[in-house]
Amino acid sequence: MPGTVFASIDALLANAADYGPWVRQWFDRSAAANSVPTTSCGGIAALRFPNPVTVPTPTSPLTGVAFPTVRAMLSQAGIVIIGLEFKLGHFVIGTGFTQDVNMPSRWVKGSTIQTAASLVFLVCDTAITGASTMTVTYTNQAGTGSQAATAMVLPSGATIGSAFFLQPNLASGDTGVRAVTNMSNSGATVGTISVRGLLPIGISNQGSGASVGPAPVDPFICSMVPYPAVGGDTIAAYFLGQSGSNMDLAAMVVGVGDI
Amino acid sequence: MAINTRNDFYTNLANGKGIYLPYRTQNTGTSTTAGATGPTGSGSFSVEMHTSLIGTTFPSTLQTLLLPPGLANQTIIGLVNGVGGSSTGRAWYICYFYKVGTLVLTSTGNQFTHDAATFPVTRTQFGAATKPLSLMPILNVTTATTTTAAAFILKNTAPSAGYTNQDGNAITGTKTFTMPAAATAVNSCFVLRLEEGDSAVQDITQIDITTAASAGAATIWLVEFLSPIGNAVSQMSYVADHLLGGVRFPDLRPASPTSGSLTSVLGLISFGQTAANVQCNGLIQAALAA
Please, which of A12, A143, A250, B74 could form a disulfide with B289 given CB 3.0 to 4.6 Å? Predict the structure, then answer.
């Protein structure tokens, strides 16, 4: 069943040897300097790198991909989170809200889990004109609908790729988002903002001005959930900690086919 | 679900019953290094408080790291990583700062004003729902001192008790703490001196200023360590995995006061060096325990 590939190192080796691992390296660069939030819209500067990676569809009998190894390196100090990204909904200012996908069910450690994103962001898909006050209505981690996040007051002129961490603004007692059912804007006049949920598969954290020495954090060596991916999934990279333009990312994932 | 196994921890995270807390913190300015050791010094440790880069204005507004609101259940921290911006190694900890009161350094006598919250602060420990925490007392200079190195003892002028120690006993201090310099900078932090045999405090009740400065004020905080993040320097990241080793299972929620409203700040503390604008970044991962 999916998820068994993490049962042991031998299982990983066997699947890698029998079916061949999927190794994907990529390089990406951010564009405009990401906008700096306040404590009312996330409390930490963040951006979404513009060019995510698509998981290929594995060949039968493989049904999914697990990631024992994830590595990332950045040109600035901060945190890089590599994750399976799900665009839950988006709002086109002047047009309105569109619901996209919901967080999926996945096999985790042998059980089917209805996931909910605790790493959830508002992302500026385009540059924003004006200062947007965004509201988000969502279904929480327990399946309770019509939950209202505290309004996110974004900085004026938020740039493309800027990301704003939503978890601190969730309704009292909530920690995750399964689905987004509505969004609204006041204050901004142009732009598109989406809500994206991230299931982290690897974390890299590095220090001041350095591009060496990031300690990898991935499910094989640390207590992270070993989320499996399926063909067509999006692997995205988020940077948190600073504002900067032209930030360079070098990343790699190693996937082992899961049956 | 209740967490009985590591798999339950992962299940809760996957279900969205988890907390991801990315952080970037900094201190500010250059604080004064701890001065002389010996019976009347300011100790051997230079200490610095690091709070959220966004929202903090030292020394008046210390922004706590943002948690999702209204966490009703205990949380268990699984994974902590961090890397410090200092080029020189120092010991770092994720911690809670609990504000116990303020101190005037410009007059002699009883100059400590306790906050409205009643201490001790408590957590559920070993099955006891409100067990007092024994914490590390630090002084944070909020107005720089001038002219004279202020000195004080943890006692009332009567004399009577100045603090409650780790055993819950009221203690009348005899040790003199002296600021390291007549001009001790804003944001300087020092560990307070306790009596022989004492290692922590549950409360500070009074402080007797024996030598006053011409200017100066401070805030007294009690510090609860949640997780180490090693001797982080700018080139080296550190990971603490509380599920796989170094088991401590800290709760990300603050402790509770005995009564009243408690000022608590989730941040970082570092020991050993002083430097301006040292930033530290990392990620804390925790799951709800139910």
Answer: B74
